[in-house]
Amino acid sequence: MRNRRAWSATRTVVAGLACGVLALALPGAPASAGDDHPSGATSDASAVIEWMRTAETTIAAEARPGPAEIFIWEAYVSTAVYNAVVGIEGRFTPYKWDERAPRTASSAAAAASAAHQVLRHHFPGAAPRLDTALTGTLAHIPDGEAEDQGVAFGKFAADRIIDLRRDDGRGASVPFPARPGPGVWRPTPPGHEPFASAWIGRVRPLLLDSPHQFRPGPPPALRSARYTRDLHELAAYGGRTGSHRTSEQTDTARYFTNLDLQGALGDHATRHGFDIAETARLYAAANTAQADAVIAAWDAKLHYGTWRPVTAIREADTDGNPATRADRNWEPLLVTPAHPDYLSGHATMGGALMRMLTGILGTSRVDLHIRSTATGASRHYRYAHEYEQGVVDARVWGGIHTRTADEVGNATGRRLAAWALRKYFRPVP
Fold this sequence. Notes:
The chain is mostly helical. It has helices at 2-25, 46-62, 70-89, 107-122, 127-138, 145-164, 225-237, 247-255, 261-271, 276-304, 309-314, 345-361, 384-397, 403-421, and strands spanning 365-371, 378-383. The longest helix is centred in the last third of the chain and has 29 residues, at 276-304.
Protein backbone atom coordinates (compact mmCIF):
# COMPACT_ATOMS: atom_id res chain seq x y z
CA MET A 1 0.00 0.00 0.00
CA ARG A 2 2.90 2.37 0.81
CA ASN A 3 4.36 1.83 -2.67
CA ARG A 4 0.95 2.40 -4.26
CA ARG A 5 0.54 5.74 -2.43
CA ALA A 6 4.09 6.75 -3.32
CA TRP A 7 3.54 5.92 -6.98
CA SER A 8 0.19 7.74 -7.05
CA ALA A 9 1.76 10.88 -5.65
CA THR A 10 4.71 10.67 -8.02
CA ARG A 11 2.45 9.98 -10.96
CA THR A 12 0.43 13.14 -10.28
CA VAL A 13 3.54 15.33 -10.17
CA VAL A 14 5.12 13.83 -13.26
CA ALA A 15 1.87 13.86 -15.21
CA GLY A 16 1.60 17.56 -14.51
CA LEU A 17 5.17 18.17 -15.61
CA ALA A 18 4.64 16.09 -18.74
CA CYS A 19 1.49 17.98 -19.65
CA GLY A 20 3.35 21.26 -19.24
CA VAL A 21 6.12 20.15 -21.54
CA LEU A 22 3.66 18.89 -24.14
CA ALA A 23 1.69 22.12 -23.96
CA LEU A 24 4.85 24.09 -24.74
CA ALA A 25 5.86 21.82 -27.58
CA LEU A 26 2.48 21.11 -29.16
CA PRO A 27 -0.16 23.65 -28.02
CA GLY A 28 -3.56 22.05 -27.77
CA ALA A 29 -2.37 18.66 -29.14
CA PRO A 30 -2.54 15.41 -27.12
CA ALA A 31 0.47 13.12 -26.85
CA SER A 32 0.57 10.52 -29.60
CA ALA A 33 1.11 6.81 -28.94
CA GLY A 34 3.86 7.04 -31.52
CA ASP A 35 5.87 9.73 -29.69
CA ASP A 36 9.55 8.86 -29.49
CA HIS A 37 10.80 7.60 -26.16
CA PRO A 38 13.88 9.42 -24.79
CA SER A 39 17.00 7.85 -26.26
CA GLY A 40 19.90 6.32 -24.34
CA ALA A 41 20.08 3.92 -21.41
CA THR A 42 16.37 4.26 -20.60
CA SER A 43 15.49 2.16 -23.67
CA ASP A 44 18.28 -0.37 -23.27
CA ALA A 45 16.96 -3.94 -23.49
CA SER A 46 20.08 -5.23 -21.74
CA ALA A 47 18.50 -4.30 -18.39
CA VAL A 48 15.80 -6.92 -18.95
CA ILE A 49 18.30 -9.57 -20.05
CA GLU A 50 20.61 -8.80 -17.14
CA TRP A 51 17.82 -9.07 -14.58
CA MET A 52 16.34 -12.25 -15.99
CA ARG A 53 19.80 -13.79 -15.62
CA THR A 54 19.94 -12.45 -12.05
CA ALA A 55 16.53 -13.98 -11.44
CA GLU A 56 17.70 -17.35 -12.72
CA THR A 57 20.77 -17.46 -10.49
CA THR A 58 18.86 -16.18 -7.45
CA ILE A 59 16.05 -18.72 -7.86
CA ALA A 60 18.51 -21.57 -8.35
CA ALA A 61 20.49 -20.61 -5.24
CA GLU A 62 17.62 -19.71 -2.91
CA ALA A 63 14.73 -21.98 -3.92
CA ARG A 64 16.71 -24.91 -5.34
CA PRO A 65 13.70 -25.78 -7.48
CA GLY A 66 13.27 -28.79 -9.72
CA PRO A 67 13.41 -28.22 -13.50
CA ALA A 68 9.62 -27.90 -13.69
CA GLU A 69 9.13 -25.51 -10.79
CA ILE A 70 11.73 -22.98 -11.92
CA PHE A 71 9.51 -21.70 -14.74
CA ILE A 72 6.82 -20.69 -12.26
CA TRP A 73 9.33 -18.48 -10.46
CA GLU A 74 10.67 -17.13 -13.76
CA ALA A 75 7.12 -16.24 -14.79
CA TYR A 76 6.60 -14.18 -11.62
CA VAL A 77 9.66 -12.08 -12.37
CA SER A 78 9.18 -11.72 -16.11
CA THR A 79 5.52 -10.63 -15.85
CA ALA A 80 6.49 -7.93 -13.33
CA VAL A 81 9.27 -6.74 -15.63
CA TYR A 82 6.92 -6.83 -18.63
CA ASN A 83 4.25 -4.74 -16.90
CA ALA A 84 6.85 -2.25 -15.69
CA VAL A 85 8.24 -1.81 -19.21
CA VAL A 86 5.04 -1.70 -21.26
CA GLY A 87 3.46 0.58 -18.66
CA ILE A 88 6.01 3.14 -19.85
CA GLU A 89 6.72 2.14 -23.44
CA GLY A 90 3.22 1.08 -24.45
CA ARG A 91 3.28 -1.12 -27.58
CA PHE A 92 1.76 -4.22 -25.94
CA THR A 93 -1.17 -4.96 -23.63
CA PRO A 94 -0.13 -5.27 -19.96
CA TYR A 95 -0.55 -8.56 -18.12
CA LYS A 96 -3.70 -8.44 -15.94
CA TRP A 97 -3.09 -4.74 -15.25
CA ASP A 98 -3.98 -1.34 -16.67
CA GLU A 99 -1.61 1.13 -15.01
CA ARG A 100 0.57 3.50 -17.02
CA ALA A 101 3.57 5.67 -16.24
CA PRO A 102 4.81 8.82 -18.01
CA ARG A 103 6.73 7.99 -21.18
CA THR A 104 9.56 10.14 -19.87
CA ALA A 105 10.24 7.56 -17.13
CA SER A 106 13.20 5.21 -17.53
CA SER A 107 11.92 1.80 -18.60
CA ALA A 108 15.33 0.25 -17.89
CA ALA A 109 15.14 1.48 -14.28
CA ALA A 110 11.57 0.18 -14.07
CA ALA A 111 12.57 -3.25 -15.36
CA ALA A 112 15.43 -3.57 -12.88
CA SER A 113 13.34 -2.28 -9.99
CA ALA A 114 10.47 -4.67 -10.77
CA ALA A 115 12.69 -7.75 -10.91
CA HIS A 116 14.56 -6.65 -7.77
CA GLN A 117 11.32 -6.17 -5.84
CA VAL A 118 9.84 -9.56 -6.76
CA LEU A 119 13.05 -11.43 -6.00
CA ARG A 120 13.67 -9.55 -2.75
CA HIS A 121 10.13 -10.29 -1.58
CA HIS A 122 10.36 -14.02 -2.20
CA PHE A 123 14.04 -14.46 -1.31
CA PRO A 124 14.89 -12.01 1.49
CA GLY A 125 18.10 -13.89 2.20
CA ALA A 126 19.43 -12.71 -1.16
CA ALA A 127 18.70 -9.03 -0.40
CA PRO A 128 22.35 -7.88 -0.14
CA ARG A 129 23.24 -9.38 -3.53
CA LEU A 130 20.08 -8.08 -5.13
CA ASP A 131 20.59 -4.57 -3.72
CA THR A 132 24.14 -4.53 -5.08
CA ALA A 133 22.89 -5.67 -8.50
CA LEU A 134 20.24 -2.95 -8.58
CA THR A 135 22.79 -0.29 -7.65
CA GLY A 136 24.98 -1.55 -10.48
CA THR A 137 22.17 -1.30 -13.03
CA LEU A 138 21.09 2.15 -11.92
CA ALA A 139 24.68 3.40 -12.11
CA HIS A 140 24.38 3.12 -15.91
CA ILE A 141 21.19 5.19 -16.00
CA PRO A 142 21.42 9.00 -15.75
CA ASP A 143 20.37 10.30 -12.34
CA GLY A 144 17.25 12.40 -12.22
CA GLU A 145 13.51 12.33 -12.49
CA ALA A 146 13.34 9.71 -15.26
CA GLU A 147 15.32 7.23 -13.19
CA ASP A 148 13.33 7.97 -10.02
CA GLN A 149 10.03 7.52 -11.78
CA GLY A 150 11.18 4.29 -13.38
CA VAL A 151 12.25 2.85 -10.03
CA ALA A 152 8.95 3.82 -8.40
CA PHE A 153 6.86 2.39 -11.22
CA GLY A 154 8.88 -0.83 -11.27
CA LYS A 155 8.16 -1.39 -7.58
CA PHE A 156 4.50 -0.67 -8.19
CA ALA A 157 4.37 -3.21 -11.03
CA ALA A 158 6.16 -5.82 -8.91
CA ASP A 159 3.77 -5.38 -5.98
CA ARG A 160 0.88 -6.04 -8.35
CA ILE A 161 2.36 -9.42 -9.36
CA ILE A 162 3.20 -10.29 -5.75
CA ASP A 163 -0.42 -9.60 -4.76
CA LEU A 164 -1.77 -11.43 -7.80
CA ARG A 165 0.18 -14.61 -6.98
CA ARG A 166 -0.49 -14.59 -3.26
CA ASP A 167 -1.91 -17.93 -2.01
CA ASP A 168 -1.76 -19.43 -5.52
CA GLY A 169 -1.06 -22.95 -4.22
CA ARG A 170 2.70 -22.90 -4.60
CA GLY A 171 4.27 -25.56 -2.37
CA ALA A 172 0.96 -26.78 -0.92
CA SER A 173 0.60 -30.32 0.39
CA VAL A 174 -1.05 -32.35 -2.39
CA PRO A 175 -1.04 -36.12 -1.77
CA PHE A 176 -1.05 -38.59 -4.64
CA PRO A 177 -4.26 -40.55 -4.07
CA ALA A 178 -3.85 -43.60 -6.32
CA ARG A 179 -2.80 -47.01 -4.96
CA PRO A 180 -0.10 -48.91 -6.87
CA GLY A 181 -1.37 -51.52 -9.31
CA PRO A 182 -0.89 -52.42 -12.98
CA GLY A 183 -0.46 -49.21 -14.95
CA VAL A 184 -0.39 -46.99 -11.85
CA TRP A 185 2.61 -44.89 -10.83
CA ARG A 186 4.71 -45.78 -7.84
CA PRO A 187 8.16 -44.51 -6.70
CA THR A 188 10.91 -45.57 -9.09
CA PRO A 189 14.52 -46.68 -8.68
CA PRO A 190 17.12 -45.80 -7.70
CA GLY A 191 15.84 -43.33 -5.10
CA HIS A 192 12.19 -44.48 -4.83
CA GLU A 193 11.23 -40.87 -4.04
CA PRO A 194 7.60 -39.81 -3.48
CA PHE A 195 5.62 -37.59 -5.85
CA ALA A 196 6.62 -34.50 -3.86
CA SER A 197 5.97 -31.99 -6.67
CA ALA A 198 2.28 -32.95 -7.00
CA TRP A 199 1.31 -29.42 -5.86
CA ILE A 200 2.31 -28.07 -9.29
CA GLY A 201 -0.83 -29.66 -10.74
CA ARG A 202 -2.99 -27.59 -8.39
CA VAL A 203 -1.29 -24.20 -8.72
CA ARG A 204 -3.42 -21.38 -10.07
CA PRO A 205 -2.25 -20.88 -13.68
CA LEU A 206 -0.84 -17.61 -14.94
CA LEU A 207 -2.68 -17.60 -18.27
CA LEU A 208 -5.21 -20.43 -18.27
CA ASP A 209 -8.52 -20.42 -16.44
CA SER A 210 -7.74 -23.66 -14.60
CA PRO A 211 -5.07 -26.39 -14.50
CA HIS A 212 -7.40 -28.86 -16.26
CA GLN A 213 -8.56 -26.48 -19.03
CA PHE A 214 -6.61 -28.43 -21.67
CA ARG A 215 -6.46 -31.80 -19.96
CA PRO A 216 -6.20 -34.41 -22.74
CA GLY A 217 -8.03 -37.70 -22.94
CA PRO A 218 -6.68 -40.78 -21.16
CA PRO A 219 -3.47 -42.58 -22.13
CA PRO A 220 -3.64 -45.80 -24.18
CA ALA A 221 -5.10 -48.83 -22.42
CA LEU A 222 -2.56 -51.40 -21.25
CA ARG A 223 -3.73 -53.94 -23.83
CA SER A 224 -3.86 -51.49 -26.74
CA ALA A 225 -1.62 -51.62 -29.80
CA ARG A 226 -0.33 -48.12 -29.10
CA TYR A 227 0.73 -49.01 -25.56
CA THR A 228 2.46 -52.10 -26.92
CA ARG A 229 4.37 -50.03 -29.49
CA ASP A 230 5.38 -47.53 -26.82
CA LEU A 231 6.78 -50.22 -24.55
CA HIS A 232 8.60 -52.04 -27.34
CA GLU A 233 10.26 -48.78 -28.47
CA LEU A 234 11.36 -47.98 -24.93
CA ALA A 235 12.77 -51.46 -24.39
CA ALA A 236 14.73 -51.18 -27.63
CA TYR A 237 15.93 -47.55 -27.47
CA GLY A 238 15.62 -46.29 -23.89
CA GLY A 239 17.75 -48.74 -21.92
CA ARG A 240 21.00 -47.88 -20.19
CA THR A 241 22.65 -50.96 -21.71
CA GLY A 242 21.93 -53.11 -24.75
CA SER A 243 20.09 -50.30 -26.52
CA HIS A 244 19.73 -49.77 -30.28
CA ARG A 245 20.35 -46.03 -29.81
CA THR A 246 23.00 -44.33 -31.90
CA SER A 247 25.61 -42.18 -30.17
CA GLU A 248 23.84 -39.10 -31.54
CA GLN A 249 20.55 -40.21 -30.02
CA THR A 250 22.27 -40.78 -26.69
CA ASP A 251 23.73 -37.27 -26.85
CA THR A 252 20.25 -35.87 -27.60
CA ALA A 253 18.72 -37.65 -24.62
CA ARG A 254 21.34 -36.22 -22.29
CA TYR A 255 21.34 -32.77 -23.91
CA PHE A 256 17.66 -32.19 -23.12
CA THR A 257 18.04 -33.06 -19.44
CA ASN A 258 18.31 -29.37 -18.57
CA LEU A 259 18.54 -26.35 -20.86
CA ASP A 260 19.51 -22.69 -20.46
CA LEU A 261 16.36 -21.31 -22.06
CA GLN A 262 16.60 -17.91 -20.35
CA GLY A 263 20.03 -17.44 -21.91
CA ALA A 264 18.66 -18.49 -25.31
CA LEU A 265 15.89 -15.88 -25.11
CA GLY A 266 18.34 -13.14 -24.21
CA ASP A 267 20.68 -14.18 -27.00
CA HIS A 268 17.85 -14.12 -29.53
CA ALA A 269 16.71 -10.66 -28.41
CA THR A 270 20.25 -9.30 -28.64
CA ARG A 271 21.07 -10.77 -32.07
CA HIS A 272 17.77 -9.60 -33.54
CA GLY A 273 17.99 -6.08 -32.12
CA PHE A 274 14.89 -6.24 -29.93
CA ASP A 275 14.08 -3.08 -28.02
CA ILE A 276 13.25 -3.18 -24.32
CA ALA A 277 9.49 -3.69 -24.80
CA GLU A 278 10.00 -6.52 -27.30
CA THR A 279 12.56 -8.15 -25.02
CA ALA A 280 10.33 -7.96 -21.94
CA ARG A 281 7.46 -9.39 -23.96
CA LEU A 282 9.60 -12.27 -25.24
CA TYR A 283 10.56 -13.35 -21.72
CA ALA A 284 7.10 -12.91 -20.21
CA ALA A 285 5.31 -14.78 -23.00
CA ALA A 286 7.81 -17.65 -23.05
CA ASN A 287 7.96 -18.08 -19.28
CA THR A 288 4.23 -17.88 -18.59
CA ALA A 289 3.52 -20.36 -21.40
CA GLN A 290 6.05 -22.80 -19.97
CA ALA A 291 4.79 -22.29 -16.42
CA ASP A 292 1.21 -23.08 -17.45
CA ALA A 293 2.43 -26.03 -19.52
CA VAL A 294 4.05 -27.45 -16.40
CA ILE A 295 0.84 -26.93 -14.45
CA ALA A 296 -1.25 -28.58 -17.19
CA ALA A 297 1.14 -31.54 -17.42
CA TRP A 298 1.16 -32.05 -13.66
CA ASP A 299 -2.64 -31.85 -13.59
CA ALA A 300 -2.69 -34.77 -16.03
CA LYS A 301 -0.09 -36.63 -13.98
CA LEU A 302 -2.26 -36.31 -10.90
CA HIS A 303 -5.45 -37.22 -12.77
CA TYR A 304 -4.17 -40.25 -14.68
CA GLY A 305 -1.21 -41.30 -12.52
CA THR A 306 0.38 -43.67 -15.04
CA TRP A 307 3.45 -45.73 -14.26
CA ARG A 308 6.86 -44.89 -15.65
CA PRO A 309 8.64 -47.02 -18.28
CA VAL A 310 11.01 -48.58 -15.74
CA THR A 311 8.03 -49.94 -13.80
CA ALA A 312 6.05 -50.87 -16.92
CA ILE A 313 8.91 -52.89 -18.42
CA ARG A 314 9.94 -54.59 -15.20
CA GLU A 315 6.34 -55.51 -14.35
CA ALA A 316 5.02 -56.18 -17.86
CA ASP A 317 3.88 -59.62 -16.74
CA THR A 318 1.18 -57.89 -14.65
CA ASP A 319 -0.28 -55.63 -17.36
CA GLY A 320 -2.56 -58.24 -18.92
CA ASN A 321 -1.02 -57.63 -22.34
CA PRO A 322 0.28 -60.84 -23.99
CA ALA A 323 2.41 -58.80 -26.42
CA THR A 324 4.62 -57.27 -23.70
CA ARG A 325 7.39 -59.09 -21.87
CA ALA A 326 8.84 -58.33 -18.43
CA ASP A 327 12.52 -57.55 -17.96
CA ARG A 328 13.24 -57.33 -14.23
CA ASN A 329 16.71 -55.90 -14.78
CA TRP A 330 15.86 -53.16 -17.30
CA GLU A 331 17.20 -49.68 -16.47
CA PRO A 332 16.63 -46.41 -18.35
CA LEU A 333 19.52 -44.33 -19.68
CA LEU A 334 18.49 -41.38 -17.50
CA VAL A 335 17.36 -41.39 -13.89
CA THR A 336 13.55 -41.37 -13.82
CA PRO A 337 12.07 -38.22 -12.19
CA ALA A 338 9.70 -38.77 -9.28
CA HIS A 339 6.34 -38.24 -10.96
CA PRO A 340 4.02 -40.12 -13.36
CA ASP A 341 4.55 -40.62 -17.08
CA TYR A 342 1.51 -39.03 -18.71
CA LEU A 343 1.94 -36.17 -19.59
CA SER A 344 5.60 -35.46 -20.20
CA GLY A 345 6.29 -32.08 -18.63
CA HIS A 346 9.30 -31.39 -20.83
CA ALA A 347 7.38 -32.11 -24.04
CA THR A 348 4.37 -30.08 -22.90
CA MET A 349 6.65 -27.13 -22.16
CA GLY A 350 8.37 -27.58 -25.50
CA GLY A 351 5.10 -27.37 -27.40
CA ALA A 352 3.94 -24.36 -25.40
CA LEU A 353 7.25 -22.54 -25.78
CA MET A 354 7.48 -23.04 -29.52
CA ARG A 355 3.84 -22.14 -30.19
CA MET A 356 4.17 -19.01 -28.07
CA LEU A 357 7.41 -17.99 -29.79
CA THR A 358 6.08 -18.53 -33.30
CA GLY A 359 3.09 -16.39 -32.38
CA ILE A 360 5.21 -13.64 -30.83
CA LEU A 361 7.84 -13.67 -33.58
CA GLY A 362 5.35 -14.11 -36.41
CA THR A 363 7.36 -16.93 -37.98
CA SER A 364 8.23 -20.58 -37.42
CA ARG A 365 11.91 -19.64 -37.74
CA VAL A 366 12.70 -19.30 -34.04
CA ASP A 367 16.51 -19.13 -34.47
CA LEU A 368 17.51 -20.25 -30.95
CA HIS A 369 21.00 -21.09 -29.75
CA ILE A 370 20.39 -23.24 -26.67
CA ARG A 371 23.04 -24.52 -24.28
CA SER A 372 22.51 -27.67 -22.24
CA THR A 373 23.48 -27.13 -18.61
CA ALA A 374 23.62 -30.93 -18.29
CA THR A 375 26.24 -31.57 -20.97
CA GLY A 376 27.62 -28.12 -21.80
CA ALA A 377 26.81 -28.62 -25.49
CA SER A 378 25.00 -25.96 -27.53
CA ARG A 379 22.62 -26.55 -30.39
CA HIS A 380 21.01 -24.21 -32.89
CA TYR A 381 17.31 -24.66 -33.63
CA ARG A 382 16.27 -22.79 -36.73
CA TYR A 383 12.64 -23.86 -36.73
CA ALA A 384 10.13 -24.62 -34.00
CA HIS A 385 9.39 -28.15 -35.18
CA GLU A 386 13.05 -29.12 -34.86
CA TYR A 387 13.05 -28.30 -31.17
CA GLU A 388 9.70 -29.98 -30.54
CA GLN A 389 10.78 -33.20 -32.24
CA GLY A 390 14.03 -33.17 -30.29
CA VAL A 391 12.23 -32.95 -26.95
CA VAL A 392 9.82 -35.76 -27.85
CA ASP A 393 12.58 -38.09 -29.04
CA ALA A 394 14.92 -37.28 -26.16
CA ARG A 395 12.55 -38.45 -23.44
CA VAL A 396 11.99 -41.77 -25.24
CA TRP A 397 15.69 -42.31 -25.92
CA GLY A 398 16.39 -41.44 -22.28
CA GLY A 399 13.99 -44.21 -21.25
CA ILE A 400 11.89 -42.02 -18.99
CA HIS A 401 8.69 -41.34 -21.02
CA THR A 402 6.49 -43.15 -23.48
CA ARG A 403 6.23 -41.55 -26.91
CA THR A 404 2.52 -41.07 -26.33
CA ALA A 405 3.16 -39.05 -23.16
CA ASP A 406 5.56 -36.89 -25.18
CA GLU A 407 3.44 -36.41 -28.29
CA VAL A 408 0.20 -35.71 -26.44
CA GLY A 409 2.10 -33.39 -24.11
CA ASN A 410 3.56 -31.48 -27.03
CA ALA A 411 0.13 -31.09 -28.62
CA THR A 412 -1.37 -29.97 -25.30
CA GLY A 413 1.33 -27.32 -24.89
CA ARG A 414 0.69 -25.99 -28.38
CA ARG A 415 -3.04 -25.79 -27.74
CA LEU A 416 -2.74 -23.88 -24.49
CA ALA A 417 -0.23 -21.42 -25.96
CA ALA A 418 -2.40 -20.79 -29.03
CA TRP A 419 -5.30 -20.02 -26.71
CA ALA A 420 -3.15 -17.72 -24.55
CA LEU A 421 -1.88 -15.79 -27.57
CA ARG A 422 -5.41 -14.62 -28.27
CA LYS A 423 -5.65 -13.01 -24.82
CA TYR A 424 -2.19 -11.94 -23.67
CA PHE A 425 0.88 -9.98 -24.81
CA ARG A 426 -0.92 -8.56 -27.83
CA PRO A 427 0.26 -5.48 -29.71
CA VAL A 428 -1.68 -2.33 -28.90
CA PRO A 429 -3.68 -1.21 -31.97
